Task: inverse folding
């Protein structure tokens, strides 16, 4: 049985993170990083796909 992939993105303070699933043509995650400068764990489907991660850094 395939296992899903869980990712956590680390970036600069107050960055906005968006994960887009190109396979399903949908945004699956949007949030600012937390006080530790990372996202909550995001689970990607075990069935695979093609994903883009956009990080917007605010100065």
Result:
């Amino acid at each position: 049985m395939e296992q899903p992939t869980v990712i956590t993105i680390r970036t600069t303070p107050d960055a906005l993170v968006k994960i887009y699933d190109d396979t399903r043509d949908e945004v699956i995650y949007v949030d600012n990083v937390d006080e530790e400068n990372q996202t909550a764990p995001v689970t990607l489907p075990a069935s695979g796909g093609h994903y883009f991660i956009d990080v917007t850094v605010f100065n």
Observations:
- The two ends are 44 Å apart (CA to CA).
- The chain is about 0% helix and 40% strand.
- The mean pLDDT is 93.
- Strands lie at 5-7, 16-21, 26-32, 42-44, 51-56.
